[in-house]
């Protein structure tokens, strides 16, 4: 059985979270970049400079990345998903979590 269409205004709530995160000020288009090191560094810079995050900088950056990967789901092409998965590894390296 098909899911009911969500109420108007809530359809793209996850895009709103990604674009207007209360915890991190993300660079525009960061999740569309083709360079995992650059993605990871940008997320790290945003998390390190944020005064509004509730968790550690590492957890905030990783949470935002994982949230995007999970919410993009089927709409994320395989190549970009690989860049984002590699960015997770690079983020761990930047924070010394490897």
Order of helices and strands: HHHH
The secondary structure category is: mainly alpha
Radius of gyration: 14 Å
Number of domains: 1
Helix content: 55-70%
In terms of topology, how is this protein built?
Elements: H1 13-19, H2 36-49, H3 57-72, H4 78-94
Helix pairs in contact: 2-3, 2-4, 3-4
Task: Provide keyphrases for this structure.
0% strand; disordered N terminus; mainly alpha; 4 helices; 98 residues
Summarize the structure.
This protein is mainly alpha-helical. The protein is built from 4 helices and no strands. It has one domain (about 25-95).
Can you offer a commentary on this structure?
The protein is mainly α and 98 residues long. It has one domain. 55% of the residues lie in helices and 0% in strands. The protein is built from four helices and no strands. Helix 2 crosses helix 3 (57-72), helix 2 crosses helix 4 (78-94) and helix 3 runs antiparallel to helix 4 (78-94). Mean pLDDT is 84; it is low at 1-6.
